[in-house]
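Hey, sorry to bother you again with one of my protein questions. I've been puzzling over a protein and I'd love to understand its fold better. Take your time with it, there's no hurry, and the full record follows here:
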Amino acid sequence: MIQPQISFAFSAYTAIYDLIVPKDNMLRQINERVDFSFVYDELKANYCLDNGRNAIDPLRMFKYLLLKAIFELSDVDLVERSRYDMSFKYFLQMAPEESVIDPSSLTKFRKLRLKGLNLLDLLIGKTVELAIAQGILKSTSIIVDATHTKARYNQKSPREILQDRSRKLRKAIYSVDESLKEKLPAKNTDDTLEAEIVYCQKLIDVTQTKLGIAQLPKITEPLNLLLETVEDDVEQLRISEDQDARIGHKSADSSFFGYKTHLAMTEERIITAAVVTTGEKNDGKQLQTLIEKSKANGMNVHTVIGDTAYSEKENIAYSRDNDIELIAKLNPQITQGGRKKEDEFEFNKDAGMYVCKAGHMAIRKAKEARKEGGKNQRTKYYFDVEKCKSCPFKEGCYIGGASKTYSVTMKSDEHSEQAAFQESEYFKAKAKERYKIEAKNSELKHRHGYDIALSSGLLGMQLQGAMAIFAVNLKRILRLTE
């Protein structure tokens, strides 16, 4: 059962906020400018409305997650800070003397109350609506790009992750008092994940109850990290890897295991649309979705600015049919020729190579000589035959005993028109705006923890993206309205 929190709980000490939290405080400004009542409308279907004890106010729980995205804190440290940080309490609409929630409530809120909710589109739409209402969104251009996020469990096995985090806790304990080493449980020597989890639970219990140092700042952080990993992520740890994450390529020589977030952003640096996919997905294939989502959120899209990944023939035709200027340079290898859709490989613009359906990248490429009188240049891409021999998709794709190649040709009137357009001074001037979205990607990663996924699975990544983008959009709106 939910009971909306309309205002601050009655308290004789509420006036202290006017003394301690300044008018220009970011959290105070967000409270004053943003109407969060939409949270009740969106979440009421996930609560029982007519019986049971009152649930923790969903608006407060939502704001806890927003604080987590803004300040990049663990659940435990987030709740602890809300105990004494008056700006946090003001933002959460708590009375100064009010007690805080149990950190485990945040896990339940994420898993149960946000289930089935398209939070990514909802929150982006709310911030765009706010930006339009504030009169700061005047651009008719969107800049598009994709940023990658590494899976939480990728380079190390789950057991290695636990070993690493328990090792950090022991090291912190030794730095406080070397003699405490004798009181710690014996290290696990079994190779199974279950045994490692049992050992970590024993280490946590001893640290919390017998050593008398659990409250020291030097101990608290590694202890909370290990505790959250065991309690909150034990389900993900047992599956041994992130089942949704995929290998993506940043260049010909580097790859990552995780996800991609495809973004559309105005020249005022307000994100208007996002699509979260697995890591191997092609950037250009998401363009039309990003444009349609931006329009649905209230944007009048006249110009789209992107890199070569977005200059596919289909995107050029779509832009022409919808009276949109596409500021994206052509790449001669970007088209797929006359193949059937199921036989197409995807082009990775960062590496300059094609990637097959199994996720393997070409190892080299070469241009073929033109036939006499021919107008179109063909480029042939060569793949590692040893990988092809054991590939699950080799039937119909690889013929034994031969080299595996993939050829592409640039042709069509659309490409000819785009080639002429990209030589204009207007095109070159608008293309210079693309740096803005690269700066936004950096902000998401380095200030809001978007470099590494907080949990396993595509749904978890979408939730993380929703809160992070909501946070950066709100911060940008506040800056533009100052």
Remarks:
- Residues 458-481 form the longest helix (24 residues).
- The radius of gyration is 26 Å.
